[in-house]
Each structure stands twice: as structure tokens, then as C-alpha cells.
Amino acid sequence: MTTMMKNSWYCAGWTTDVTNTPLHRKIMGQDIVLFRDSHGAVQALSDRCPHRFAPLHKGKVKGDAIECPYHGLRFDGTGTCVLNPHGSGQVPPGHHTDSFRVEERNGTIWIWIGDPDKANTDGILDTSFLVEKDMFASRTEHHSIEGNYMLVVDNLLDLTHAQFLHPETVFGKSAAERWSVSLTGKPGESDEVPLQEVWFEETETSLTAHQMMRQKPQPPLWDPIVDYGLADLHSWITWYAPSNLDLRLDLTRAGQDEKPARMIVVHLITPIDEHSCHYFVAIGWDTNIEDEEAADRVIGIVRQTLVDEDGPMIELCQTYMDGETDLFALKPLLLQTDGVAIKARRRMSKLLEMQT
Ligand code: FES
Ligand SMILES: [Fe+2]
Fold it and tell me: What pTM did the predictor assign?
């Protein structure tokens, strides 16, 4: 059974990725070509020319259409063949290439692969920090991972892995300590304030995992931005089915009740197919936003975290899962800290059942 949900908005790229030079992206098992037409609108078509099946992304954009590199048929943004440069110039009716609905919002390009009548733009994740240049510095990245996209969701919904996998980047070198886990939807209410704490919240459309670290050296990710020394860090990540995640980080000086330095990191995971996925990440922060050198250091740390640390670990796990995409089929050990990741997978199973 497929693990991929068709009726959903997926990130197809950042605004800066798509120009009038055609771009190929494989999404949900489909080869897709993205381009900007003469009005600057992003169009998304099946990359396969219906004549001899040439890849359209090797062609050129001509006005509002894309010209096939093989025999020059042109297709507009609806996938309709609008020009046949040969013979009578006629095109047999019914020959077109598939087109897909696209929405470009706040620096992000979203694509809908499923039933266009079910495409409701209310569900699109807000990335407005990417365009609020007076309030946030920001950077974007795109990588791919050779693993089922839900393994990346698992990774993000349990941030306790950071102290082991990311000691030099997002977590820091603090000694590993036991996490206090509250399943009540609120932080624990004991008199003794735990130094490391996890709690969970859910709504009908989202699941959130919170993590609170107190009195720790500020994680290296923050070093280019602030110099707080000992800090308190509240991180919370919200999952929207199937695989768009919004991570918020608030950092204050340890024990201080002050306006925090804020960071937003959106992780948009788009299946390429059952065994690989795109990993689009955008990060924004609201402190020291004019400093370009600091921004380069921040994105360098993000790359190290995702590309050198998370990516290879997820790929190795997928290899050791022998290509299996159903985690539960392998009867994994379940921990309290897996709570949200497991709920997300259960919700996905229900959503996938409803799609069949
Ligand atoms: S393969 Fe595209 S025009 Fe022939
Ligand atoms: Fe990670």
C-alpha cells in the first residue's frame, strides 16, 4: 500500500527556484516541469511530452508555453498543445500533458497533485517570515533524502535525538540527561522544575511536541545571533499532515522573564516516491537580522545538522529497514518520547485509508 497522500499541498520549491528556465522536480512519483510564464506565474506540467515522451524540462519557455526540445510542440500552463510547427499545424484533439495546480505564497511554491476539486488553499502553511524582511532574516535550502518521507517526520517529531546526533550544532555539548516526559498537554507541574522536559498537544489538524531546556549553554545554532551564555530554550514543533512541519524556538537568558529571541524553521517534506523525499527547509530569526555573515554561519550550521547528520542517519535506518516503508510492520521499540511521532503515523494510516 502507498504511504503517499495525494490530496495535499506539497512544497515544490522556493520562489527563487523557479524562473523561465524549466526546472524538473519529481514529486509523488511524477516527473514534473515547473516554469514561469510571461506574466511571472508559475506553471507545473507533467514533464513527459505526449508525442514521443521527451522530457519537456530540456526545452525552452516561449511566452506562456513550454516548447518540447524534440519536435517543438508547445504546451501552455493548462497542458494544452497550443502549437504544432509541422504540416498543417493541427493537433489531434485530446493530446495534452497533465497540468497541476500551483500556489505561490510568501516565498514558497506549493503544488497539488491530487483531485483539483479538493484543493483548499486554507491548509497552506504560513511562511510569511520569508517576505517580512524588516522583521526576519531568513535563508532557504533544498536537499533530498533516500528514505521514506515519514522517517523524516519521525526524526522531527522527536527532538530529543538532538543531544546525541547534533551535539555540535543545534543542541550543544551539554551532558545528556534524562528527559522528563509529560503526557498531559502541559509542562509537568511538580515543584522541582525539570532541566529537560517534553510535553505534547494536539488539535484536529495538528500535533505539537514541546521541548524545554533550562540553564544550558546556548546551543551553537544561536551563537551567530545572540550571546546569552546560559540560556532557557523552548522549542515546539507542529506537524500538519502529511509532512509539513513548523518549528518555533524561543531563547532567553537562563531564568529571565524577557522577550525571547525567536527563530522559525519550517521543514517541508515532499515525497519524491516511496523511498525518497525532498527536504525543503526555511529558517528565519528576529534578532541581529542585518548581519549577513551571521546569516551565512546560521545556514552553515543548519546544513551540517540536516545534510551531514540527520540525512545520513535516516538513510542508514531506511537501509537497515530493508526498504520497508511501514514502520509498524517491523515492530519497533516504542518510547514515551515517540508519542507524537506514533500519533502522526496513526493519523496518516487513517488518512490513507480514506483516500483509497
Ligand atoms: S517528443 Fe515532444 S514534440 Fe516530439
Ligand atoms: Fe535532527
Answer: 0.95
